From TrEMBL:
Provenance organism: Deinococcus rufus
GO molecular function: peroxidase activity
Protein's UniProt keywords contain Ribonucleoprotein: no
Superkingdom of origin organism: Bacteria
Keywords: Oxidoreductase, Peroxidase
Entry-linked InterPro entries: AhpD-like (IPR029032), AhpD_core (IPR004675), CMD-like (IPR003779), Uncharacterised_peroxidase-rel (IPR010195)
One Pfam family recorded for the sequence: CMD
Domain Carboxymuconolactone decarboxylase-like stretches: 46-106
The name this protein goes by in its record: Peroxidase-related enzyme
Length: 187
């Protein structure tokens, strides 16, 4: 057990080369290596495959804005009570919104954040898919279409919500601890 995971965490002498390159890039970009990168590196190939898909969904140009994707991450993580993801993506959302109060309110209860119709529809859909996936119906998509989402954006929304549900479960099941740096970012 380490301070950041309930499993062993590789260090620079035991992490695979591809993982070390990613650690270096993140250290240069953020000033630290996210603990989720360190904790998941125990199975290097699986971690890098997860990162490739995560990076594609969250950090690349897509059909949803970066702020919308981070908002989804925060709503899903709040519903799942995932400490790591709520703290880390809450920090990212604060930076993207440039409104710490609104971002923190979304993290606690998005219904109190005075969101516009599109943001409200995204959050409601993400929460329902997270908490009650068996109740999803085709009618749920109509609300999304009414606020301007096309099929491409809807598919991306579902994939982002799915990714965060996966990541929340991994993080929660293995006791991942967020980096201290996240708590003070963009405040």
């Amino acid at each position: 057990m380490t301070d950041i995971s309930w499993l062993a965490v590789p260090d620079t002498s035991s992490a695979p080369e591809g993982v070390l390159r990613l650690w270096q890039k993140s250290s240069e970009a953020l000033g630290f290596v996210p603990n989720v990168f360190r904790a998941q590196a125990l199975n290097g190939e699986q971690f890098l495959a997860w990162w490739a898909y995560f990076n594609l969904l969250v950090n690349r140009e897509g059909h949803l804005s970066p702020a919308e994707r981070e908002m989804l991450a925060v709503v899903v993580s709040a519903a799942n009570r995932c400490v790591y993801c709520e703290v880390s993506h809450g920090a990212a959302l604060r930076g993207l919104l440039d409104d710490p109060l609104k971002a923190d309110t979304i993290a606690v209860n998005w219904r109190h954040a005075r969101l516009d119709a599109r943001q409200t529809a995204l959050c409601a859909y993400a929460e329902k898919l997270t908490l009650r996936p068996a109740e999803m119906t085709q009618d749920d998509l109509e609300t999304l279409r009414q606020v301007g989402l096309d099929d491409h954006a809807i598919l991306e929304l579902v994939q982002v919500v799915g990714m965060f549900n996966l990541t929340n479960r991994v993080s929660g099941a293995l006791g991942f601890v967020p980096n201290a740096e996240y708590h003070t970012q963009h405040r």
